[in-house]
Amino acid sequence: MWTTLLTTIKVNVREKSNLLWLFFFPILMASLFWGMFSGLTNIQVEAQNFAVVHDSNWNSVPGADSLVASLAGKNSSHTKLIVPTVVKSLGEAKERVNVKKDSGYLYVTDQGSLGIAISDDMYNKVTNTLSSSTAGVVLSSLRSIITQFNHAADSVEGVSESGNPAKAQQTIAEYVKASAASAGLTYTHDRSLTHFAPDQFARYYYALLGMVCMMSMSFAISSITSAQANLSPLGARRSVAPQAKWRQFGAIMIASWLTSFASMAVSFCYIRYVCDIVMGGREGLAIAALFVASFTATALGLLVGAIPRLSHGVKTGISTGIACFGALFAGLYGTFAMNISDAISRDAPALDLINPVKQVSNLFYDLLYYDSLQPFVQTIMILLITGAICVALSISIMRRRSYANL
């Protein structure tokens, strides 16, 4: 039995297709995810060149210079949004925008409100979703800040007209201070409702692990197919060997289980330590999840491999179809697929039970997003029951197998 076990492991590892699809392919996909998502989690705001029109209208608005100083990052606690250039008229500001020296300009209208104008180039950057989002962040922030500034100015004007100069001066001072602070972009604060804050793109990586897990069915399929006398010369020799069938089956199952676990462990370690997708200190439980998931994948592979009369290529195609089709409803293929996955989990959760890719990805989802381990244990039980059923069915098929001739 031990000889069969070691030989099966060597054959599985030496198979070039296994090395490609179960070791290198997930690393390549994880690298592509990391390249696409790494720049989206931490956007660096790049200050934009803006002209500031210092005409007679501008001088009539108190606090405008303080606001521009804050937007320019003169206060180190504030985010630098603009690189200002002072001009004397609207015409000069428009000329700078036309020759692409500035992305826009700030000015004060005849009604005393602060306004903003942007160039066509900046507008195209904001509206083009394939472009850098830096310009969009800056423009959105400037609009919000200027809106608050104008609302505060209206309040100051109302106090001034009330005939209370002292109160007006106090309000003006508070208004200038608020205008300066508004450039700090501290309108919201992050709060985590779980034991740690997971990466917003982590679900894609663990949906990938779910697909890789089901693709590792091919280890068991190759091993069990080679043990069938009507499909493999090796199987014909094994069928007349004195070793009991249960020993052969047990060795094949354990060897396939270990190689499946090894392929998943390599992918997980790459995702965790190279792509830096954290598990909130639950890496040990994640390894246990890999062990259970690889058992289920092996059991499914044994069941598919035990199907009589189908060639090895057809059986491998079935396993690939299960992995790729299941990955669609686990959300691997983008936002649209993730929305479908969420809709099924919300409206028809029973369908998730028959999707092994979804159940494997749920193992890591449960660890990422829940403080309690109850959902994790529940998913573990689902995978164990699924694996046990598949092992029982494959044993039933194999033990009844007989051949009229070899």
TrEMBL record:
Chief location: membrane
Pfam families: ABC2_membrane_3
Any one of the GO CC terms: membrane
Keyword Manganese carried by entry: no
Location within or outside the cell: Membrane
Membrane listed as a keyword: yes
Keyword list, A-Z: Membrane, Transmembrane, Transmembrane helix
Membrane topology type: Multi-pass membrane protein
Parts of the chain that traverse the membrane: 19-37, 204-228, 249-273, 285-306, 318-336, 376-398
UniProt domain ABC-2 type transporter transmembrane: residue ranges: 19-395
A GO MF term: ABC-type transporter activity
Protein name: ABC transporter permease
Organism in which the protein naturally occurs: Bifidobacterium fermentum
